[in-house]
Design a protein that fits this description.
The complex is a heterodimer of chains A (202) and B (186). Chain A is α/β, with parallel strands linked by helices. Chain A contains eight helices and seven strands. Chain A is globular, with a radius of gyration of 16 Å. The chains are: A alpha/beta (202), B alpha/beta (186).
Chain lengths: 202, 186
């Protein structure tokens, strides 16, 4: 299938997708947002992640900054379709900056799950694969099957980026509204900075 | 009020600022730097600062990323900060209005140092900006005051020291700080 439009395949569970990522990410920095955030903090509770909650649409931009700053590490953005629509121009900015260590995973479920599952404009018919390709991402693909994702992820993780993958997923079990808490954003920023920049011994 | 601010003066100031930031970083962090350039400019094109942006295109020691929106610029700036890179945002007052939620969420609530150079397009030389007949100019300082963002006016060559001062201030207070570029660079 060339485009990223909806299929009849049963969507993947976001938690299953996140577990696959956690198993192979290595030292990659991860940037979850909205409905990927609660599950990610229990699946991968480490200091190499920073969540984007409170400035919806900013996950891939924050990931881009990290990727530019740290070319020695892979950066994986765990984005949502509603979130990406809020900063759609970021596709062009990410592709224009063209960091080879940048991977943009889009969890496509067709709704704003966190605010009550209202449909996004265009619903599941919005073709983000075409958009990312048109913006200039180096590698662009769609995956709608968990076994296929498991098989292809290791190669995608080593491909020259920017890489964009549209993942056809269902709704997560939790959202930032139903599973509040976790490490506060300023502390996540501090923890990641400390993890990346080892202080000089005193 | 002078006619303009030379672009070369702004760029030399940015270079000094970035060198100072790199030196401070080297004292704190054990690992060697990953980059050979001095620092980063994140820009959404601004009419007042267009000669600086044009000159930066030819400047190899400073990397420029042109962003589609000011929201992106602020979030990219946060990523660069977490990765230890010095960064300055160059935007226009309209972009400040457009991206105020991201400034709030990232720089204020997230306590991420973020330094903005904000062009005041249409700022009249014979009027205080707060009395401008253009709402874009008139509301800029009150908006920054409302959000508690420290700011200063860059209105001539003698004011360029404010760039470094307010950059440092953003680091010290771990939040946003801004200089308002009140006349065109040349």
């Amino acid at each position: 299938m060339a485009s990223g439009t909806a299929t009849d395949t049963k969507p993947m569970k976001p938690e299953d997708v996140l577990r696959v990522i956690a198993a192979v990410r290595g030292r990659a920095i991860c940037v979850p947002t909205m409905t990927t955030a609660p599950a990610w903090r229990s699946i991968a509770p480490d200091d190499l992640s920073v969540g984007c909650v409170g400035f919806m649409g900013g996950a891939s931009s924050m990931g881009l900054g990290l990727a530019l700053a740290r070319p020695d590490r892979r950066v994986i953005v765990l984005d949502g379709d509603g979130s990406l629509l809020m900063q759609l121009g970021s596709l062009a900015t990410n592709a224009g900056a063209a960091p080879r260590n940048f991977m943009h995973l889009l969890f496509k479920n067709g709704v704003y799950h966190t605010s009550g599952a209202q449909g996004i404009p265009g619903g599941l018919d919005v073709d983000f694969v075409m958009m990312a390709k048109g913006a200039g991402y180096r590698v662009v693909t769609m995956i709608d099957d968990l076994e296929d994702f498991k098989r292809r992820l290791p190669e995608l993780l080593t491909a020259d980026g920017p890489v964009f993958v549209e993942l056809h997923t269902g709704l997560a079990e939790q959202t930032p509204m139903t599973a509040r808490g976790g490490v506060a954003f300023p502390q996540q920023v501090e923890n990641l900075r400390n993890a990346l920049l080892k202080p000089r011994a005193r | 009020m002078p006619e303009s601010i030379p672009a070369t003066l702004v760029i030399d100031t940015l270079k000094d600022l970035f060198r100072e930031a790199r030196a401070a970083h080297a004292k704190e962090v054990a690992e060697p730097p990953l980059h050979s350039h001095l620092g980063w400019i994140l820009s959404v094109p601004d009419t007042h600062q267009k000669t600086v942006l044009a000159a930066l295109d030819k400047e190899e020691s400073i990397r420029v990323v042109t962003c589609a929106t000011e929201d992106e610029a602020t979030a990219i700036g946060a990523g660069l900060y977490m990765g230890g890179e010095p960064v300055v945002l160059m935007i226009q007052h309209a972009g400040l209005y457009a991206s105020i939620n991201t400034l709030r969420g990232v720089a204020m609530d997230g306590r991420v140092p973020m330094f903005y150079m904000i062009g005041l397009l249409s700022r009249e030389k014979d009027k205080d900006p707060r009395e401008s007949r253009h709402s874009m100019v008139r509301y800029c300082e009150p908006l920054l005051d409302t959000f508690g963002v420290p700011h200063a006016r860059l209105e001539g060559p003698n004011d360029v020291h404010l760039i470094s001062e307010y950059y440092r201030l953003s680091r010290e207070r771990r939040g946003p700080a801004a200089v308002l570029v009140g006349l065109e660079t040349s």
